[in-house]
Amino acid sequence: MKIIFRGDSGFYRWRMLRWCETHGVFYLAGLAKNSRLNEMADPLLEQAQKRYEATGQKQRLFGEIRYAALTWDHARRVIVKAEHTGQGSNPRYVVTNLTDDPQRLYDQVYCARGEMENRIKEQQLDLFADRTSCSKWWPNQFRLLLSSLAYLLLEALRRLGLKGAEPARAQCGTIRLKLLKIGAVIRRNTRRVYFHFSSAYPYQELFFLVARRLSSA
Predict the structure, then answer these.
(1) CA-to-CA distance for 49 and 57, rounded, in angstroms?
(2) Which residue, among 157, 127, 156, 119, has the nearest Cα to 144 in the 3D structure?
């Protein structure tokens, strides 16, 4: 199994990179710009600038360099995205131990982390993963664990109960409002538990569809 770690420039500490290399984990992490990186990438940056000046259109060129900060244990492969627009030069750097084409790695693998960040925001905003206001570590960790479990449950709901339905790609907040955060009267006897929903509930058909699919899963 191929494991790839992706992260922004807050995750490129060389000890973390060395751990990945030691344990057979591939990584693709943003690297903060600095004068040394810009100097090493200058031929590609200059080429992008000249192409922009000649065409007046945004230019994106890709290349790679070998780079090691003073604190690193050895040099590593760094992908360079040399972008030049009407706002000037906008280089980006990504450190990796993957050997694929630089542009493919940047566009299809590194930039895909944006979708992952959307899912993290979804958990924070819709499932309250950001409620870690306790002064002690373990209670906050437990709250985050509950939020993570809630996300897994809703993801299973999307995958099993909502497959092919309109809300199959809905965010967790929408699913909560339509299928979970609804009023009901619960009546129980020795044999059964009854849920009495309002006859005006607008998502009755969807609710029963999901219930049937989950009961047969």
Answers:
(1) 10
(2) 127
